[in-house]
Amino acid sequence: MLKGRLIVESLKTGVDLEISDLCLVRLGRHDVSNSTTPFTEGGDAPGDAGGSVTGQPPVWTFLDFEAPDERAEELAQVLAAGLDSKLGWWADFIVADDHVVLFADRVFRYRIGDQKAREQAVAWGRATGTPEHQLDWGD
User: Fold this and answer.
1) Per-residue DSSP letters for 39-63?
2) Which SS3 state, helix, strand or coil, does residue 97 take?
């Protein structure tokens, strides 16, 4: 079962995600004006990691999802097509031993722990405007 996260505000206006077997696991809205990492318990994170930047809303909707592994390619393509290219928005999910990181019209899939491949995704994010402190997906 693949597992991932999407910031709803990262989608282009008018985008509908229609993936068979995609399940909502958690949906939460968090103030990210000081930190873009929501706590899973106890409310919003205090500001030490860097928050939203100019042009990004100060409150984000975090959508955690799951789907069967065989939906990975379809999900990657749909998310990459639906992400807004402004501000370097990204989404990600884990499938088996791979991490899939998506930017607008771009998909990176690499083996967890492959630092060279991860750095290629990070470099793409930097080049497309993702704030440095938001290039923080874990492996």
Assistant:
1) -SSSSSPPSSSB---TTS-SEEEEE
2) coil
Alpha-carbon span 46 to 74, nearest angstrom? 36
Dump pLDDT digits (tens) for 30-78.
999 887 776 544 444 444 458 888 888 999 999 999 999 999 999 999 9
Which has the closest alpha carbon to 95: 79, 119, 116? 79
* pLDDT single digits (tens) 88-129: 999 999 999 999 999 999 999 999 999 999 999 999 999 999
Q: Where are the domains of the chain?
A: 2-134
Asked if residue 100 lies in contact with residue 69, where contact means CB atoms within 8 angstroms, the answer is: no
CA dihedral 113, 115, 119, 122 (to 10 degrees): 30
